[in-house]
Task: inverse folding
C-alpha cells in the first residue's frame, strides 16, 4: 500500500482532499517531504478538489433541494441556521466558511438554495479554495519542518501528517463548540 501511495502521490492527494479535506492536504505535505509530489502540486490539486466538491454541493442546493426530500430531511436544520448568515453576507461567506470544518459544505448548499448567481459563486469558490488549500498546505509544511528533520522515512512523514490532521480537526471541533456556546 505504501508503494502505491508513493507512486500515485498526486492521485492520493486529490482523493484524500476530495473526501477528507485538510487531512488530504497534510497527506500531500507528507508526500512532498518524501519527494513523491511537490508542494505546488498539493496546493493546485487541493484547490481543484475543493472547488469541484463545493460546486457539486452548490448545484445540489440549487437544483435538487426542492426535488429530493432526503436532502431536505438531512440538511434542513443546518440550512435554516445558516440562512441568516447567507442572506446577510452572500457568496463572500465562502472565503470564511472554508476554515470552519462542518459548515463549509452546508454554506455551499445554502448558497445554491438561496439562488446566489452561479458566476459569483464560482469566483468566490475558486478564490476561497485556493486560499484554503494554500493555507493548510503551508501550515502543514511549517509544522512538519520542525519535526521532519529528525525523521527521514516515509512512514514518519505519514505519521506526522496524521497527527497534525488530528490536531487541526480537534482544534476545529473545540472552536466550533466554543462558538456554539457563545451563540446560545
Result:
Amino acid at each position: 500500500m505504501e508503494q502505491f501511495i508513493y507512486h500515485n502521490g498526486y492521485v492520493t492527494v486529490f482523493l484524500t482532499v476530495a473526501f477528507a479535506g485538510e487531512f488530504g492536504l497534510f497527506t500531500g505535505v507528507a508526500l512532498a517531504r518524501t519527494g513523491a509530489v511537490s508542494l505546488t502540486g498539493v496546493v493546485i490539486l487541493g484547490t481543484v478538489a475543493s472547488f469541484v466538491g463545493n460546486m457539486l454541493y452548490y448545484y445540489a442546493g440549487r437544483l435538487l433541494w426542492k426535488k429530493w426530500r432526503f436532502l431536505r430531511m438531512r440538511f434542513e436544520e443546518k440550512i435554516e441556521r445558516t440562512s441568516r448568515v447567507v442572506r446577510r453576507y452572500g457568496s463572500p461567506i465562502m472565503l470564511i466558511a472554508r476554515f470552519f470544518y462542518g459548515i463549509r459544505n452546508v454554506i455551499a448548499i445554502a448558497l445554491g438554495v438561496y439562488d446566489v448567481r452561479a458566476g459569483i459563486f464560482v469566483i468566490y469558490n475558486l478564490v476561497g479554495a485556493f486560499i484554503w488549500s494554500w493555507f493548510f498546505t503551508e501550515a502543514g509544511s511549517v509544522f512538519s519542518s520542525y519535526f521532519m528533520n529528525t525523521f527521514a522515512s516515509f512512514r514518519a512523514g505519514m505519521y506526522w501528517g496524521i497527527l497534525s490532521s488530528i490536531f487541526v480537526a480537534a482544534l476545529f471541533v473545540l472552536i466550533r463548540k466554543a462558538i456554539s456556546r457563545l451563540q446560545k
